């Protein structure tokens, strides 16, 4: 195998593949290798090294995983002349490919040709490798089509990270494997497979080998020929190896591997990538928001659940992307004729490659675009404004009884005072005071007695006459009934005051009403479902225009939902264009407007200052959010796989907790 000092990682791949083969006890042969470092800048010396290896060390085939163009031509000429198989990848450019590509990238970035009207076609497999961060930045404003070989990078990464005695070179574990490393592994395995075919067909090959005096078919060892001899003969066994190489077929990490009769690869898979200046997003909290730092640029300007989700998907799939906001700030609705608005419309017109937002998966949308596996579920809920507490009550102790009852009690005190005084005067018996001295009762004494009974205090007056005791007994019975009612109502009013902030409301305020004997705050009428909301006609309700929620209300067969849609449709002012507009109407309507929205946004906005809204309702039209892609997009299966992997690892759950629960601006107390 031939390497240069700049690509020692390819030597590691080669060593690991050979070690893996030789460690397999079920195989009938082992491989001995010879490894040389060559100077690609000196093609003549490269040919001399090939001669020394072939004729002095008995090499059966050469592996050249990386060769510069001029050195490759010299090596190929030697291989054809002496019929020694050469396995490797031919360079497409006469110069170092990565430098060549980087120069083109910076040229695009520094010229006026970066306008979106230009489209570049990169003919090399540059997308097969991970680019440095500065190179993709050149393509943020251009359209590019390029190609890549599929590669199982995970298998290659595991092979690189293996530490065996045959692999002294170590590659950084976090480095992404390149296309050259993938091809080096496949080239090595193709050679091993070809030799295995020769072993399996040894009987047929023996006759062909008998004429080669320097070959032993028993153990595949070659006699050494002195390279200084005057005559160098072509290697006859090379044609047999080459013929078996051409019939070798296998499924490598770069896909299907087969060869033409000319020795070139055929029937392989090429992935076509189109890179444009946008990946479509909708700016909506907490899915996507602009950072406050104006010095940031590119994708760094954004934050939110969708931004983090896309970053996780890109890391999983090793993709490069750019965030672009949707033109009309809409998700996408059909106009009833021929076109779609918002994200869906841009996907249909192939202006973007994917759309990430709280984009509901519906039958109508799924008929024109492809959706990934859902990354979040939701249902339709209502946003209410919390009721205000109202002015502070300076006399809460008088609230259990109405004004009329209090007035009647005061009047009763004076009436009983007069009656008690008159009865005592007309009675022949004297009332006895606390000092047991008989004396006539006065009007003041009678008032003191009436008030004392009312407040359960001893006045020092004890009626002795039958008529006075009858009046006193009636008064005591009246006072007992009033005090008992007062205490029970006081307790009930205290409990209701604590509960009033947790009950659903219909008016948004508390009114003082009198119900004969009792006096209390009017408590909110409970609204716990859309049926309750549909039955009343006091408060208004609305939803987001041109949204999946509007489509659901419009097409629903639920009687309550149909009645609500008829009300909304009759008044255009009940529909809003953005979530922020709907939330603003709820907070400024003093409880006279309810916004119908999907639960993830409702949960997030209720935890934002001033913390004066809350969610009501659940399980109405459970929906799912997915990533939308154009029909037939080659990215769909990869995005699906990435979402499933992120779900299994708990990444999506962690992202939701980060942007909902952990960023709450409100503090709640248990009631």
Automatic annotation (TrEMBL):
| Record keyword Cell membrane present | yes
Spell out the PANTHER family in the cross-references. Answer: IONOTROPIC GLUTAMATE RECEPTOR
Against SMART domains, the record matches this protein to:
Lig_chan-Glu_bd, PBPe
Q: What is any Pfam family matched here?
A: Lig_chan-Glu_bd
The protein's name: Uncharacterized protein
Tell me where in this chain the Ionotropic glutamate receptor L-glutamate and glycine-binding domain is found.
286-349
Q: What is the protein's membrane topology class?
A: Multi-pass membrane protein
Q: Which InterPro entries match?
A: ANF_lig-bd_rcpt (IPR001828), Glu/Gly-bd (IPR019594), Iono_Glu_rcpt_met (IPR001508), Ionotropic_Glu_rcpt (IPR015683), Iontro_rcpt_C (IPR001320), Peripla_BP_I (IPR028082)
MF terms from GO for this chain are:
ligand-gated monoatomic ion channel activity; signaling receptor activity
* Residue span(s) of domain Ionotropic glutamate receptor C-terminal: 272-662
The residues annotated as site (Crucial to convey clamshell closure to channel opening) are: 527
The record's subcellular locations are: Postsynaptic cell membrane
Q: Organism's domain of life?
A: Eukaryota
Of the GO CC terms on this record, one is: postsynaptic membrane
Q: Which residues bind L-glutamate?
A: 358, 360, 365, 548-549, 598
Alphabetic keyword roster: Cell membrane, Disulfide bond, Glycoprotein, Ion channel, Ion transport, Ligand-gated ion channel, Membrane, Postsynaptic cell membrane, Receptor, Signal, Synapse, Transmembrane, Transmembrane helix, Transport
Give the site residues for Interaction with the cone snail toxin Con-ikot-ikot.
554
The cysteines covalently paired via disulfide bonds are: 611-666
Where are the membrane-spanning stretches? 405-423, 443-462, 474-496
Which protein family is named in the record? Belongs to the glutamate-gated ion channel (TC 1.A.10.1) family.
